[in-house]
Amino acid sequence: MSEHASSLVQQPITDVLDATTVQRIADDVWTALVGDGEVLVPLPVPAPEQTVSAWVQITGPWCGAVVVTCDQPTGVALTECLLRARPPAVIEPEDVDDALGELANVLGGNVKSLLPEPSSLGLPQTGPTPPASRPEDLCRVDAQWRGQSLTITVQGATGAPHAERNEVPQ
Amino acid sequence: MKILVTDDSRVMRQIVIRTLRQAGYDDHEIIQAEDGREALQMVGAEKPDLVLSDWNMPEMSGIECLEALRASGSQVPFGFVTSEGSPEMREKAANAGALFLIAKPFTEETFREALDGVLA
Which residues does chain B have within 8 Å of residue A116's beta carbon, measured at their own beta carbons? Predict the structure, then answer.
């Protein structure tokens, strides 16, 4: 590989942080934002068929996104916790987008602080789960909250240059 | 005293306001802005005693708002409440005239440590 190409290669996220670190960040976020006694248990449960995701993009020496994924009822329950809403409070879809986006934003800000500078953080987005690029550039926490699946991924951007860029994308 | 809470997330504004109350600042008037541009206008119109602002926002970021305030001669006390707390951002905030930077996630103790000197 040429010197120029080498400078374009993105270091895999797993060289910088591991799932334990992401879980530790999530633990702090859950305690502070979701509520005392609310725990994100690092034990996977079967993923729901339909999910919603929120993410923030990180741009810098490492490009990618921090993504939070769960099913819609779990998103509503998380929103109720963040707002400390009690029935009969009505949670609107935009509230769920906002709440999940803020969880991704706070997780993303803390992940970014561990990455090489200069990096910048984008605004939260929500929608279908964005595709991950490569397994080597992916840090994943499969967890459960209140018994429901919740996944946090720190994933390299699709199209970001990688050391093994000649391999066929998976 | 009057506190202007600025964040493009309604959920986060509610969390900040709740944390202010939990930290003991429950006798202050709270007003809200959705981005830096609205905050800039509200500082002129509402004359808050303190601005608490997110950093990353559409239309106008928190740091752009602070720089615009200082450029216009406003010396309103200004602090960031943001998801990023790197040394570089803290330095940038301080250089622009911010009194403090509270990184998310935060607790009521974090708020007291940052705000007691400002609101006492």
Answer: none
Provide the H-helix boundaries in A17-167.
19-29, 72-83, 93-112
* Number of domains chain B contains: 1
Is residue A144 a contact partner of residue A45, using CB atoms and an 8 Å limit? yes
Question: Mind listing the domains of chain A with CATH numbers?
Answer: 48-156 (3.40.1550.10)
Strands B100-103 and B78-82 come out as: parallel
Range list of H helices, B23-107: 36-46, 62-71, 87-96
Q: Is B111 touching A (CB cutoff 8 A)? A: no
- The pTM of the full predicted model, rounded to 2 decimals, is 0.91
* B62 pLDDT higher than 90: yes
What ipTM does the predicted assembly reach?
Answer: 0.93
Amino acid sitting at position A88: P
* Chain B interface test: which of A33, A40, A120 (most B C-beta within 10 Å): A33
pLDDT, tens digit, 9 for 90 and up, residues A48-92:
999 999 999 999 999 999 999 999 999 999 999 999 998 778 999
Helix (H, G, I), strand (E, B) or coil at A96: helix
Read off the CATH number of the domain in which B81 is found: 3.40.50.2300
Contact B86 A112 (CB under 8 A): yes
Alpha-carbon distance of B101 to B113, in angstroms, equals: 11
**Residue whose tokens read 């900040």:** B16
Q: Which domain holds residue B30?
A: 2-119
Whether residue A134 lies within 8 A of chain B, CB to CB, comes out as no
Using one digit for the tens of pLDDT, what is the confidence trace for A86-134?
Answer: 877 899 999 999 999 999 999 999 999 999 989 999 999 999 988 887 8
For chain A, percent helix, then strand, then coil, each to nearest 5?
A: 35, 25, 40
